[in-house]
Inverse folding.
C-alpha cells in the first residue's frame, strides 16, 4: 500500500505526528509525509491512502492546506480512502475543520 501523509505545521506538532505515521506505515509498505507547499503541487498519483494532518488555526484549517484543497475540483478525491487528523485540542473547532477538508475528498 502506498500512503501519502500531507501535512502543514507551524510549530512542529503536526509535523511530528505526520512523520510518526509515515514511519510506522513504512514498516508495511510505501509511505511518505509531505509538507504542503504552495509552490509545489502535491501529486496524488499512485496513492492508495491519503492522510491529511493539519493544525487548527483560527478555528479553520491552515491557509496552506486550505489552498491545496481549494485548488482541487470538489470531490476530486472522493474515491480515495482518506482520513483527516489534527493535533488534539479541546472544543469543537475540529469538527468544522475536518468537514471543510472532507468536502474536497
Ligand atoms: C495562528 C494560530 C491560530 C490558532 N488557532 C487555533 C484555534 O482556533 N483553535 C485551536 O484549537 N487551536 C488553535 N491554534 C493552536 C494550534 O492548532 C496548535 O497549537 C497546534 O498543535 C499547532 O500545530 P503545529 O505545531 O503543527 O503548528 C492556533 C495556533 C496558531 C499558531
Amino acid at each position: 500500500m502506498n500512503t501519502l501523509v500531507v501535512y502543514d505545521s507551524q510549530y512542529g506538532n503536526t509535523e511530528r505526528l505526520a512523520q510518526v505515521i509515515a514511519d510506522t506505515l513504512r514498516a508495511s509498505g510505501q509511505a511518505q509525509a509531505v509538507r504542503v507547499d504552495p509552490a509545489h503541487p502535491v501529486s496524488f498519483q499512485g496513492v492508495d491512502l491519503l492522510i491529511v494532518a493539519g493544525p487548527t488555526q483560527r478555528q479553520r484549517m491552515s491557509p496552506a492546506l486550505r489552498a491545496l484543497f481549494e485548488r482541487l475540483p470538489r470531490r476530486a478525491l472522493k474515491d480515495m480512502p482518506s482520513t483527516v487528523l489534527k493535533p488534539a485540542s479541546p472544543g469543537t473547532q475540529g469538527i468544522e475543520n475536518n468537514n471543510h477538508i472532507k468536502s474536497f475528498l
